[in-house]
Specification:
The chain is of the alpha+beta class. The chain is built from four helices and nine strands; from the N terminus they run βββαβββββααβα. The chain has one domain: Beta Barrel (OB fold (Dihydrolipoamide Acetyltransferase, E2P)). A six-stranded antiparallel β-sheet has the order 1-2-3-9-8-5. Strands 4-6-7 form a three-stranded antiparallel β-sheet.
Length: about 120
């Protein structure tokens, strides 16, 4: 199981790569492994301001559909449109081409709930 040290994580198995006041979000290697083969990613929240914990989309695998949760409050600036035709990128490269959304946030965003790699390892056991 791959848990990069340079990313932050949520207890809901999303990863977050923060670059200034922008963040890229996707699901972790652990999550994609648990879901199995990803067949569809639906994200219709581009341009919306969402609170921490709100659903920003869904991901469908062969055996289940799961909600995707905002790691903290922000605006969904961009959706990875490559996933429309290539949802399996989430399985193949969850931390690369499999990113899902890019969000912007201001300095008041509460990032305190994010876990470092060691904290996330404790969550997944």
């Amino acid at each position: 199981m791959n848990i990069p040290q340079d990313l932050k994580y949520t207890k809901d198995h999303e990863w977050v790569r923060i670059e200034g006041n922008t963040a890229f979000v996707g699901i972790t290697d652990y999550a994609q492994g648990e879901l199995g083969d990803i067949v569809f990613v639906e994200i219709e929240t581009e341009g919306e301001e969402l609170d921490s914990g709100e659903v920003f989309g869904t991901i469908e695998a062969v055996k289940t559909v799961s909600d995707l949760f905002m790691p903290f409050a922000g605006k969904v600036e961009e959706v990875n449109t490559e996933l429309e035709s290539n949802p399996e990128a989430v399985n193949d490269e969850p931390y690369g081409k499999g990113w899902m959304i890019k969000i912007s946030f201001d300095d008041s965003a509460d990032l305190s709930e994010l876990l470092d790699a060691e904290g996330y390892k404790e969550v997944v056991g």
